[in-house]
Design brief:
CATH topology: Rossmann fold
CATH architecture: 3-Layer(aba) Sandwich
Strand content: 15-25%
Helix content: 25-40%
Oligomer: single chain
Largest sheet: 8 strands, mixed
Bound molecules: zinc ion
Radius of gyration: 17 Å
Strand order of the largest sheet: 3-2-1-4-5-6-7-8
């Protein structure tokens, strides 16, 4: 254990809040562009444990934006990220699940203090939303495509949930079809992990009942307020 590792952030957060971070378990669903960045940022913060879940292996086309070494090629992404975390901060416990997140495999995330959505599709986000409502686990939706990205924090039964504001897209664009910039995923990952700090240290996430949206090509950064939908299929009914 390195005694002075967190000194610079303790100046901003205080010892008490650092102690709070050191007790957190963060679940990360998806270890691609956003997830590999978010996992490393979360491990630098000094949280207690990270639970990784992803069913993909490292591909050549991932290297422009995902935090892997060339020697990671064809490794399971969860293994590659776990090894990197261990090298960066050996105090962080890591659990790696080489599988797709669904309502069955979600059990691995039951002990998470918060879940970071680093996936790339609507249907997995619906599963995360339903699981987190059921288990009362806060989660941070994050997506990136082209030069763009979005983030929103969902506090179950309190703030608007994902299904309150996100409609099923008619044509879901993939990174393969549309392209994706490393700067977009890195920015979105930073905002996502900052939400963990804001929620647990200061009790005030920036993007609960709100959607952060950016376009790095246009220089657009905006916060759109969203409301709980009284007719929401997921959260309108009683717990
Ligand atoms: Zn809802």
């Amino acid at each position: 254990m390195l005694k002075n590792r967190h000194l610079r952030q303790i100046r901003l957060l205080g010892e008490k809040n650092q102690a709070k971070l050191s007790k957190l378990t963060v679940g990360i669903v998806g270890c691609g562009g956003i997830g590999s960045n978010s996992a490393l940022l979360a491990s630098q913060l000094g949280i207690k444990k990270i639970i990784l879940m992803d069913r993909d292996k490292v591909n050549e086309t991932d290297f422009n934006r995902q935090q892997f070494f060339e020697s990671d090629l064809l490794k399971a992404k969860v293994e590659a990220v776990a090894q990197k975390i261990n090298k960066m901060n050996s105090d962080v416990l890591v659990e790696a699940h080489f599988e797709q997140f669904d309502l069955e495999t979600a059990k691995a995330m039951e002990k998470a203090s918060i879940i970071l959505d680093c996936t790339d599709n609507y249907s997995t986000r619906i599963d995360i939303n339903r699981f987190c409502l059921k288990r009362k686990i806060p989660w941070v939706f994050a997506s990136a495509l082209k030069f763009e990205g979005m983030v929103s924090t969902i506090i179950p039964w309190k703030s608007a949930c994902f299904e309150c504001f996100a409609k099923k897209p008619k044509n879901e664009l993939s990174c393969e079809d549309a392209g994706i910039m490393n700067t977009a995923v890195a920015t979105i990952a930073a905002i996502q992990v900052q939400e963990v700090v804001n929620l647990f240290c200061f009790g005030k996430p920036n993007y609960a009942n709100a959607l952060f949206r950016m376009n790095l090509l246009d220089g657009l950064f905006e916060k759109i307020l969203v409301d709980k939908n009284p007719k929401c299929a997921a959260c309108a009914k009683k717990k």
